[in-house]
Amino acid sequence: MDYSLLSNAPLFKGITPGDIETILASVPFRVKKFQSGLMISQSGEPVNSLMVVISGIVKGEMADYSGRVIKIEDIPAPGALASAFIFGNRNRFPVNVIAVSDGELLLIDKPDFLILLMRNNILLVNFLNMISNRSQFLSEKIKFLNFKTIKGKLAHYILQKAGKYGTSVTLDMTQSDLADFFGVTRPSVARAIGDLEEEGYLKAKGKNIKLIDKEGLADLTIDL
To answer: Which CATH class is domain 147-220?
Structure first.
């Protein structure tokens, strides 16, 4: 295993590849290969291990009561899977985890991972940061899912990117990515951007957005 890849993982931030090798040698671990399209974990299954993507990409997705599939996020190497659900009373996968490409996972069973956290303060702090960031991400995701209109979702996303004083933004997602993130279709996103431009809220050129009416955009977010 290439330990230099793991040194880029949030869990091992600030730890050299040599030290990572030493740390992992102190507990049992295994490497599991996966193929594109494979269901790695299903929603509701218990999270019994720390799982870090060593190579490849996986995605988390869920289905609502109508059967519509909503992609939560892509998780490329060296991201971790369900890190916020390893511990706790309901430590089960909240979404389906599916392989987007071929790759490998590092797995450390929960009791062994707990031993590592107790032994190494850097690992412990990194892990706490990981689960805090995950909670913040999921909180933002819930906000987007709760907006009634696509224009409300877009307005919130754009204003968040622009900040309090910004008058322009460069989107960091394609329209397809935004559609997956919002749980809607790509044409719906394109149509909503066109509507916002036609109604005078913004000017759009590719991923570059110039905000014309920030107050009006803010009003669109009050649609809960």
So the answer is: mainly alpha
Is residue 17 within 8 A of residue 128, CB to CB? The reply is no
- Phi and psi at 64, nearest 5°, equal -85, -175
Average pLDDT by stretches of 10, the chain with 224 residues: 89 95 95 95 94 94 72 88 90 93 96 96 95 79 71 88 89 86 85 93 92 91 64
The CATH architecture one would assign to domain 3-141 is Sandwich (2.60)
| CB-count burial class (<10 Å; 0-12, 13-18, 19+) for 66 | exposed
Domain range list for the chain: 3-141, 147-220
What is this structure's pTM? 0.67
Taking only Cα atoms into account, the Rg of the chain, rounded to an integer number of angstroms, comes to 20
What is the model's pLDDT at position 224?
45
Strand ranges (DSSP E) for the chain? 30-34, 39-41, 49-55, 57-63, 69-76, 80-81, 96-99, 103-109, 168-170, 202-205, 208-211
